[in-house]
Amino acid sequence: MEEAEQTIMRTSLSRPQQLLGGDRKLVILSGLGAALMAVSVMTFLSFLIAFLGFGSIARRLVELLRPFAMEIVALRRKPGSEAGVSIITEEQLPAALGAADHVVNILPASEATEGFFSVERLTAMAPGAVFYNIGRGTTVDQAALLMALRTGHLGAAWLDVTDPEPLPEDHPLRGEERCFITPHIAGGHADEAGTLVKHFLANFRLFLKGDALQDRVI
Q1: Which residue among 25, 117, 131, 141 is the one 20 to 30 A from 34 at the CA level?
Q2: Number of other CB atoms surrounding residue 176 within 10 Å
């Protein structure tokens, strides 16, 4: 058995066409296909990712992304420092959008954030960048997003939230081949209710003591 395995190994390395019925063209095409696939596959290494909104969701994503050695910047209302993350101001946002390979929008819904991703901000993003919205649908000008996808300015858009939800069946974003829509399922887990109750009780104890609450939005 061992001798047979060695024979197969030697044949596959020296004369691979013999394993494919002598079809040399098939071997060449297989090798070409593998090479083309390797060229088209991108890794996260050395990419720049920009978060808009930096709460508990963004912090968890940073933890998951840390092994990929990505450069991470984040926009948030309150200044401060975060390990491995460069906190930026709104004045610095255009430059960050122009440099980022991936832009993750986690902004909450409010008067200040309505239509935050406007024509100007989407245009400011780097050509070929990928946009993700896991915050609220009202924070994005969806007509401007559609145009950015159709013109090829953006590489793709992944939307877990839209305005409205769900989008009408004939909405043009549904038919855009580089737009991927999920029905607000980015969160949630089997014990979500129990987790929320524990979170509430922990915050209630902090409130009774007059301490700062966890994950405060407003």
Answers
A1: 131
A2: 16
Location of structure tokens 């390395």: 13
Structure confidence at residue 9 (pLDDT):
47
Mean pLDDT for each 10-residue chunk of the chain (218 residues)?
Answer: 50 45 49 54 77 91 90 86 88 96 96 96 97 96 98 97 95 96 79 88 95 80
Q: Which residues are catalytic?
A: 136, 165, 184
Contact criterion met (CB below 8 Å) for 81 and 59: no
How far is Cα 51 from Cα 74, in angstroms, rounded to an integer?
A: 5
The CATH architecture annotation of domain 48-181 reads: 3-Layer(aba) Sandwich (3.40)
CA–CA distance, 206 with 211 (Å, rounded to integer): 5
For residue 68, give Cα distances in angstroms to 21, 73, 132.
42, 15, 18
The one-letter amino acid code at 99 reads: A
